[in-house]
Specification:
Length: about 240
């Protein structure tokens, strides 16, 4: 069994059943490498469970914090907090990739740093914590890990026009406008997914994904606004 002491310390949670954590770290490529006839378990079921736990925790917190907002803005805010890019960022802060159990092929092709792989593992770890410690333990863990991007936020940005709000906010400090850059486009023509980033004065402020370039840029602006407002609230606190 791998040594998970450092990861548990980073999580702030010690598993009663470490087999659950090991399973959460086991990539599906291990099963493919074992071949037909080997019943090698992997983390996809825990990923499925963890996704549901994350959705519920974040939904509950948004609902409680922002009673004046309707379903639409709350849904958009939640989507920004639990998308693949955001979850991968949390995974990297935990150095989760170093603990993954991968096939030789997956390891050699960059699996430890791949956004989808570490994001899936993050969800699986949340699922493992839920099974090991219960919902309240998992909820506390999620809110602690999301503290920088969520815990200090006291208001939602203008979700109808996040690009406009971001430009207004930044140009109150500097005449230079934000700059958007498309990072990737994937999927078939009828169902493409775009990823964009927003920069200001050479610094990346946020990333976002969407089904069009415009939506991806709006998501990036929303991510930047949340980060800026969280940093401001923590500084003032």
């Amino acid at each position: 069994m791998i040594n998970t002491d450092q990861l548990e310390a980073a999580l702030g949670y010690q598993f009663r059943d470490r087999n659950l954590l090991v399973l959460a770290l086991t990539h599906p490529s291990i099963a493919h490498e074992a071949g037909v006839g080997h019943l090698q378990q992997h983390n996809q079921r825990l990923e499925f469970l963890g996704d549901a736990v994350l959705q519920l925790v974040v939904t509950g917190e948004l609902y409680a914090r922002f009673p004046s907002y309707g379903e639409g803005p709350l849904t958009q805010a939640r989507a920004q907090m639990v998308n693949r890019i955001a979850l991968a960022a949390h995974a990297r802060r935990l150095n989760l990739g170093a603990f993954l159990i991968l096939s030789r092929g997956e390891d050699s092709t960059g699996g430890r740093v791949r956004t989808s792989t570490v994001a899936d593992a993050f969800e699986a770890v949340v699922g493992a914590v839920f099974l090991d410690g219960g919902f309240e333990v998992a909820r506390s863990l999620v809110l602690t890990l999301f503290r920088d991007s969520f815990g200090a936020v006291n208001e939602l940005p203008n979700l109808d026009n996040p690009k406009g709000e971001l430009q207004e906010l930044l140009q109150s400090r500097s005449p230079e406008p934000p700059r958007y850059e498309q990072l990737s486009a994937s999927g078939p023509d009828h169902n493409q997914q775009f990823e964009s980033a927003v920069f200001h004065e050479g610094v990346e402020l946020g990333r976002g994904i969407g089904r069009s370039k415009k939506l991806a840029e709006s998501a990036a602006a929303l991510s930047a606004l949340q980060t800026i407002k969280a940093a401001k609230a923590m500084k003032e606190g």
